[in-house]
Design a protein that fits this description.
The complex is a heterodimer.
Chain A: E1 6-8, E2 18-19, E3 33-35, H1 41-44, E4 50-54, E5 61-66, E6 77-78, E7 81-82, H2 89-92, E8 96-100, E9 108-113, E10 119-120, E11 125-126, H3 136-164, E12 168-176, E13 182-191, H4 193-197, H5 201-209, H6 213-222, H7 226-235
Antiparallel strand pairs in A: 1-9, 2-10, 2-11, 3-5, 4-5, 4-13, 6-7, 8-9, 12-13
Chain B: E1 7-11, H1 15-28, E2 37-42, H2 58-65, H3 70-76, E3 80-82, E4 84-88, E5 101-105, H4 117-122, H5 129-133, H6 136-141, E6 161-163, H7 166-180, E7 184-187, E8 190-195, E9 201-206, E10 211-213, E11 216-219, H8 226-231, E12 236-238, E13 247-254, E14 266-271, E15 274-280, E16 284-291, H9 298-309, E17 319-322, E18 326-328, E19 332-333, E20 336-338, E21 344-345, H10 352-367, H11 375-402, H12 410-415, H13 423-432, H14 451-460, H15 477-497, H16 501-511
Parallel strand pairs in B: 1-2, 1-11, 2-7, 4-14, 11-20
Antiparallel strand pairs in B: 3-6, 4-5, 8-9, 9-10, 12-18, 13-16, 13-17, 14-15, 15-16, 18-21, 19-20
Helix pairs in contact in B: 1-7, 1-10, 10-11
Classes of the chains: A alpha+beta, B alpha+beta.
């Protein structure tokens, strides 16, 4: 897989480029986790397990959708198919990304992965119109990414709340792979229900007012989707 | 029933005093019982020594036990990680740029339940002991961090301890102890110690004539040994005839380049009449020369130190520290226990200072009787464990010298003279000349240094254990070869997952460390 090369979108440099539409989202086919915003938990929860994982760079928690049972394996977005009725926005946005000043989210810079196989000079949706203005699709993408940035920040605040109240716990998922024996998935974290039920009145009220309950229970319910990943795995033939 | 022991007074506010106070508070307090009181008395006039900057992995358990936030500790005490002590030029006198070095690693030799040592001994074309039995030697030499950002607090991919700024560490512990552990902190200078008729401590009197009363006293007053030595007249067992160094000269060397890599290990380099320590903190190095003034002059010692540091030493001042090697005849006498330098001292070759403080403070917390009836037994038991532990520490320190092949100075000739070695060390070495050291040679858990520590030093120093007569007892050659091979493979895998030491320290400053 070629590496990602995100650069700010440039009306001159990228003027004649088109983006192929790939409804199978094959750019994530070698990822077993994809980022998921707290605002997406409800819709995602009927499709895949939602868990928390640490970022290698910072050690900080992010919420992710688990789409494969081992490193490099994606069972949901595989073989040109999508086994999900919900596509996380951070998958949909590709090959675009939000760049810019992390201190000031309002200053979003639209970036594009120059190494993406979706970029070409004839097929798909144009990035810029002939007059050099962003196309309607590009404007929509700008909207989406601005929205993602805000919701990503809100997700960080949500996770900080969980950490601060000791609501996260490491969890080791052991999966019976039949002949291949037991397989362990390490490095994933979930919400500790016991701690959740022991929360102080103040903290519980904060949860309620910030509308965190939906995300919390969606996450807990989603943990039943490990079974679904196993079913997908049983039918899965690697490409 | 005897009088309850509820009121504990600790004298001295260095790292020994504060560590002891925090450990006692954590172990003796109970949320429902506020009757136990711990007071730490510290003089504003007496400076702390502040050169104990190396630790061993038990410090992780200790800090975790007393409830310290690891990231805050790292951020506030200029902490770096320590995975090993690298001993340079201890085996041979350096010759035309030829230098010998070995690692005493914190990771135990791998392959649990299967000792590779005999196979390593039987193999003639071998790599160094440390790099044969552990991937930590290579990881240390690459200056990689033992910890990743994804590791939770007090855990790493490899074993580790810390290098720390001792002055900042005692301030940090003081803040923690007062804010979170309800330790009563009094700034005053003890001018008099009043004894009771039975010879125990009745009270302390400060220079304004005020009394400080306790049921039990802990002497953490450093070399001054204000209670156990001065007041209670407990004698000192000098070990200068076995460990020959008796002076130190130290210097703090700021980094000229703040991106310079920091070795994740202490460097101990042997010289003509002693050895230098070299500890890299985040903002500076702490460097010092420990030497024998019976074998060299103080001026010559300073010259050695300055030449070791190089041109960076030019504008820096050096501080002389006299040392007395040995320990108190008793560590516990009546209602007083000495911890830290007041109890005893050996050269900081294996970072024993803080290690012994941790161990004795925990032992005191365990042994402190509920009332005066239990005092006599507790004293006897504590003293016998304490003396045993100190003697074993001295054996281990002496081992480093005794195996040297350096003959460049009287200092080394005297050090390898069996008359200067403890009998308990000599008899073990004699056995190990033709037998592999095993766990049963270290029967007591109060031996601070265990089998693994001895293995790294013995075979780092190329000690010759000749097992050719019993080689048939070791039939698993092929398996051993495979295991040693696996360790090399694992080295390649693990080094890809680790970042540079300096980089991880910077990230911890920025992002902290997760508690889970």
């Amino acid at each position: 897989m070629t590496s990602i090369n995100m650069v700010p979108l440039d009306s001159k440099k990228h003027s004649n480029l088109f983006i192929k539409v790939d409804r199978s989202y094959s750019h994530v086919k070698q990822q077993n986790m994809v980022p998921l915003l707290a605002s997406e938990f409800l819709q995602a929860s009927t499709n895949f397990p939602i868990v928390f994982a640490k970022q290698e760079e910072t050690g900080k928690f992010k919420s992710v959708a688990l789409v494969g049972l081992q490193k490099g394996e994606n069972l949901v977005f595989a073989n040109d198919k999508v086994h999900s009725n919900y596509i996380p926005v951070n998958v949909r946005r590709y090959p675009f990304a939000a760049g810019g000043n992390s201190e000031d989210d309002s200053n979003m810079i639209l970036c594009i992965d120059e190494n993406s196989a979706l970029i070409n000079d004839s097929e798909g949706i144009e990035i810029f119109q002939e007059d050099g203005q962003p196309s309607a699709a590009t404007k929509q993408m700008t909207q989406l990414l601005t929205d993602i940035l805000a919701k990503d920040a809100a997700t960080d605040v949500f996770i900080a709340f969980l950490v601060e109240h000791d609501l996260l716990q490491a969890t080791e998922v052991s999966i019976n792979m039949g002949e291949a024996g037991q397989q362990k998935i390490n490095g994933i974290y979930k919400i500790n229900e016991e701690e959740l039920n022991e929360l102080s009145d103040d903290a519980a009220l904060t949860l309620y007012k910030r509308k965190y309950f939906a995300a919390i229970y969606a996450h807990l319910a989603s943990l039943n989707q490990f079974e679904r990943l196993l079913q997908l795995k049983a039918k899965f033939t690697p490409e | 029933m005897g009088t309850a022991i509820k009121n504990i007074v600790i004298v001295g506010g260095g790292t020994a005093g504060w560590l002891t106070a925090c450990i006692l508070a954590k172990k003796l307090y109970n949320a429902n019982d506020v009757s136990t009181k711990i007071t730490l008395v510290e003089s504003a006039d007496i400076p702390t020594i502040g050169v104990g900057e190396g630790t061993v992995p038990t410090m992780r358990q200790t800090l975790s036990l007393i409830g310290v936030n690891e990231a805050e500790f790292i951020q506030e005490c200029d902490v770096t990680f320590k995975q090993s002590i690298k001993f340079v030029d201890w085996l041979h006198t350096p010759n035309h740029g030829q230098s010998h070095a070995y690692h005493h690693l914190f990771n135990h030799p791998h392959v649990p339940g299967f000792d590779l040592t005999p196979y390593w001994l039987l193999n003639s074309t071998k790599d160094s002991f440390a790099s044969s039995v552990s991937f930590q030697a290579a990881i240390s030499d690459l200056h990689l961090s033992p910890k990743r950002m994804t590791d939770k607090h007090y855990q790493g991919a490899l074993e580790y301890a810390y290098h720390l700024d001792a002055m900042k560490f005692s301030k940090f512990l003081a803040k923690h102890g007062c804010n979170n552990l309800a330790i009563n902190h009094q700034i005053l200078t003890v001018s008099e110690v009043i004894l009771s008729a039975d010879g125990s401590i009745d009270r302390l009197v400060d220079k304004n004539g005020e009394s400080i009363n306790g049921d039990f006293y802990v002497d953490c007053s450093g070399f001054a040994s204000r209670l156990i030595g001065d007041a209670l007249k407990v004698g000192f067992v000098n070990k200068g005839h076995q460990l020959l160094v008796n002076s130190a000269i130290a210097m703090q060397v700021p980094y000229r380049d703040e991106n310079k890599e920091i070795p994740p290990y202490t460097i101990s380099t042997a010289h003509e009449a002693g050895w230098t320590w070299d500890i890299g903190l985040t903002k500076r190095r702490g460097v010092g020369y420990v030497y024998s003034s019976n074998h060299t002059t103080h001026d010559r010692a300073e010259e050695i130190l300055r030449s070791y540091v190089g041109e960076e030493a030019a504008e820096l001042s050096a501080r002389r520290i006299p040392m007395e090697i040995g320990y108190r005849e008793k560590f516990w006498h009546k209602n007083c226990v000495a911890i830290g330098l007041a109890a005893g001292f050996v050269e900081p070759l294996e970072a024993t200072a803080l290690l012994v403080v941790e161990a004795t403070a925990k032992l005191l917390a365990e042994k402190l009787p509920s009332n005066t009836d239990g005092m006599a037994y507790a004293e006897k038991s504590f003293n016998s464990i304490g003396r045993y532990a100190w003697d074993k520490v001295i054996d281990f320190i002496k081992l480093h010298y005794f195996l040297s092949k350096r003959r460049d100075h009287d200092f080394w000739l005297d050090n390898v003279d069996p008359a200067t070695a403890p009998e308990s060390l000599l008899e073990k070495l004699n056995y190990w000349r033709s037998n592999v050291p095993t766990q049963s040679d270290f029967a007591s858990k109060y031996e601070v240094f265990q089998l693994e520590n001895y293995q790294y030093v013995l075979y780092g120093m190329e000690f010759n254990t000749d097992i050719s007569q019993i080689s048939q007892r070791y039939p698993h050659l092929a398996l051993a070869e495979k295991e040693i091979d696996n360790i090399q493979k694992k080295t390649q895998q693990i080094k890809m997952k680790l970042s540079s030491h300096r980089e991880i320290l910077k990230k911890i400053q920025q992002y902290g460390i997760s508690k889970i």
